[in-house]
Write a structure and sequence with these properties.
Layout: E1 7-15, H1 27-41, E2 47-49, E3 54-57, H2 67-77, E4 83-86, H3 96-109, E5 112-115, E6 120-121, H4 125-158, E7 171-174, E8 177-180, H5 182-198, H6 201-210, H7 223-230, E9 238-241, E10 244-247, H8 256-268, H9 271-275, E11 290-292, E12 299-306, E13 309-316, E14 331-333, H10 334-349, H11 352-362, H12 366-378, H13 385-395, E15 396-401, E16 406-410, H14 412-427
Parallel strand pairs: 1-2, 1-3, 1-4, 4-5, 11-15
Antiparallel strand pairs: 5-6, 7-8, 9-10, 12-13, 13-14, 15-16
Helix pairs in contact: 5-8, 6-7, 10-12, 11-12
Length: 428
Amino acid sequence: MEPKKTNKCAIYCRKSVEEGLEQEFNSLDAQREAGEYFIKSQAAKGWTCLEKRYEDGGYSGGNTNRPALKQLLADCEAGLVNTIVVYKIDRLSRSICDFAELSKKFDEWGVSFVSVTQDINTSSSSGRMMLNILMTFAQFEREVIAERVRDKMAATRKKGKWVGGTVPYGYKVVDKRLEVNEEEAVRVRNIFRRYIEIQSARQIAFELNFDGVATRKGKAWTPNHIYRMLKNHHYIGEVEYKGEVCAGEHVGIIDRAVWDRVHEILSNNTPERRKKGERVASVAMLKGILKCGHCGGAMTPTYGRHNGKTYPYYICSKDVKRAVSSCPVKRISAGDIEKLVSDQLAKFLRTPDFARRIADTAELDVKEVMDMLGDIGTVWNEMYPEEKNRLVQLLIKQAVVTETGLDLEIRTDGVKTLREEMAANAQN
């Protein structure tokens, strides 16, 4: 008499949500127990239950990206499992496509599939037919549930309620409602204010990174982060859903006037309007950088008007406080000095020796720095003014002007920041 062939059975359990899993005897335990009883009832056929537990708590059946399921499939392929036992077929998968793929693998590995409560055994043709019928209904149920959830979320959003997802920077969730996070809200207001002032998302991102402020995920800020924030209706107490804007239940962080001004600038700075020359005036390029070589004071930007026209220039902050002017630098045309600084920086960027010195000082790869600065220098004349302004602020630590010349001091850490920023943009 031939000995009974051992049928190694693995019990797979799944629960879509984590709620209730903390209980001493939860849904996963109940599924496991039902599977064990069923296997014991088949002991005469040589069925044995593997002690290893394959349980996915808090995972949807809509896909196969589940850790315990992956381990089960690996063990099946290795020949450690002959039969998979589940409480119901939807515990394994709710997708017909996914289940079809799993079935192919089971056939390839010689693995059978059994449902305890539905009397399904894929080792027989009738069992496989019943399985296909039930899987069709399982997917139908899943799609109906998904439609109901989407409809409910749409109706809830239209009422201005918070329905989950990524919490906007500047807010926190309290009792399923958005409330202002005061610490982050200060930065949000500052970002909107700075955009009105300098009209450069790149410069704002650089300033945040330079000040050591990280995103909520601990990463460096990029222009995309800034633009998404500037366009987020949550900041004026509204909710946007599929192009429709509704009043929200939460409190706004930004005043409507600030929002309107920012979006006026965003509209004016589109590529189409740039080509037509409809740019909004840029911030002073050398603000905080230009120094008087005679007095040592900051050269601050200001404006004068004559015959209805505005003329920007920089004045020596120390000289303007004196009763009698004695500074030979005194006042410089903004257009002249900004062009001089811009041209000199562009020349530096295209000079290999300059790139080598910067790389050595910043302890960076020489070729990488040469390529990076060379590329910027090549397209310098094609950049928009705000882009040039940002790079000047990023790369120049100080520009000292005297009555006879100009001396630039390069910001080494700015080169490092520029490299990190370009790498981050490449990843996004």
